[in-house]
Amino acid sequence: MDLERLSAGLSESWRCLIRDWDRCLRSTGRPETTRYNYLLAVVQLGKYVVANSGGYAAQDPAAVSRADVESFQAWMIETRSASTALNKHKFLQQFFHWLAEDEQAVERSPVDGVRPPQPPTKLIPVISTDDTTRLLESCKGSGFMNLRDQAMIRLYCNTGARLSEVANLRIDDIDWTTDSPSEALGCAPLNQIQRSLNLSFKQ
């Protein structure tokens, strides 16, 4: 990651603190992709302040105000999305917390009191009954592949199981006395999460 290139256009004070924070993140073992996302949020805030606010904040991150953060956050929502703005909010929280607690460069984080964005809830499309019927029709037959595909489709439709749950399901996981498959989620033998899914054998 080229920090000098990433922070080009910012004042030396901004760039110096970005380098220091990167060193702090590296010392805690944060992977490069995580560090990049954290640092990018700070760089974007800095460049936004330079372009829109000016003043002392354009020269020194310690002068960034709550209003600067709110304006930047609103701009992120307008130009990207509420989800992206929420991520930036979290990253900036970490940066200014470090600036206040470790560097003692500010008495209070300007992110304090700034409400995080609320991304809209996205409804996941559900396959229609007609589409399900057509899908089952395409699997008609008495061969192994046909019966297997029909069983998998019916299991998805009847239980709402996840892809990985059905893929990892074994015969021993099915409790034939209750018509319910009990699936072990996770790989660690001592850290498995058990849940039961009710099966219906109605046609």
UniProtKB/TrEMBL annotation:
It holds the Pfam family Phage_integrase. It is found in: Cytoplasm. One of its GO terms (cellular component) is cytoplasm. Its main location: cytoplasm. InterPro entries: CB, DNA_brk_join_enz, Integrase-like_cat_sf, Integrase_catalytic, Integrase_recombinase_N, Integrase_SAM-like_N, Tyrosine_recombinase_XerCD. One of its GO terms (biological process) is DNA recombination. Keywords: Cell cycle, Cell division, Chromosome partition, Cytoplasm, DNA integration, DNA recombination, DNA-binding. Residues 12-100 form the Core-binding (CB) domain. It comes from the Bacteria. One of its GO terms (molecular function) is DNA binding. Residues 122-203 form the Tyr recombinase domain. This is Phage integrase family protein.
